[in-house]
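Subject: Re: docking follow-up (flavin mononucleotide)

Dear J.,

Thanks for your patience while I sorted out the input files. As discussed at Tuesday's group meeting, I've set up the holo structure prediction with flavin mononucleotide included as the bound ligand rather than trying to dock it afterwards. The sequence and the ligand SMILES I used are pasted below, so you can double-check that they match what you have on your end before we go further.
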Amino acid sequence: MKITILNGSPRMGGNTEIMADAFLEEAQKKGHDVVKINVGQMDVIGCMACESCFANDGVCVIEDDMTEVMTRLDETDLVVLASPIYWFDITAQLKAVIDRLYARAIKGFHIKESILLLDAMSDGVFNAATTWYKDVTDYVHWTDRGIICVPGMEAKGTMAEHPALEEVRDLAASL
Ligand SMILES: Cc1cc2nc3c(=O)[nH]c(=O)nc-3n(C[C@H](O)[C@H](O)[C@H](O)COP(=O)(O)O)c2cc1C
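The structure tokens for the complex came back this morning:
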């Protein structure tokens, strides 16, 4: 199947990207078509609520990198949302991409399944992001295939030595 990882971290080579890459590697081994999109590095602004997309077959009037993201999501079977926790939630960069999915609110999604990968410095900081994810995926009828939350990410690269990476690989291998 076609899998797309949306990496919401702006820090390349950071803990979230390490986790995303481990997932990608393992899912590719299973023969899936896997693409990682570093949305944390892209130019995607939030939805302007003009609702032109509703009248125009889902075409958004904003001309930015979301066109590239949406093209891939329109053929994606399973989306992986990967993000560091910023102030008890996903990053603004990833949230902007999700807000722009409003352009598919009427037209509908190709995506059928999803996974959430989160990492943070502290424990007990994942509630807002996991609750949000469950509500969103329920609403759009995406089947949740797994949620992994990894605390203890003190510095860039801490993830590389963390046992949670095995859990991430196992989840990808289960697809
Ligand atoms: C702007 C900002 C906000 C953060 N907010 C939190 C937070 O609320 N709770 C927490 O435990 N860690 C927080 N962190 C730490 C990151 O979640 C953590 O270091 C993560 O592993 C960084 O991922 P990265 O290496 O992909 O950038 C924050 C980091 C930044 C830069």
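A couple of observations from a first look. The CA atoms of residues 56 and 173 lie 39 Å apart. The two ends are 9 Å apart (CA to CA).

Let me know if you'd like me to rerun anything.

Best regards,
T.
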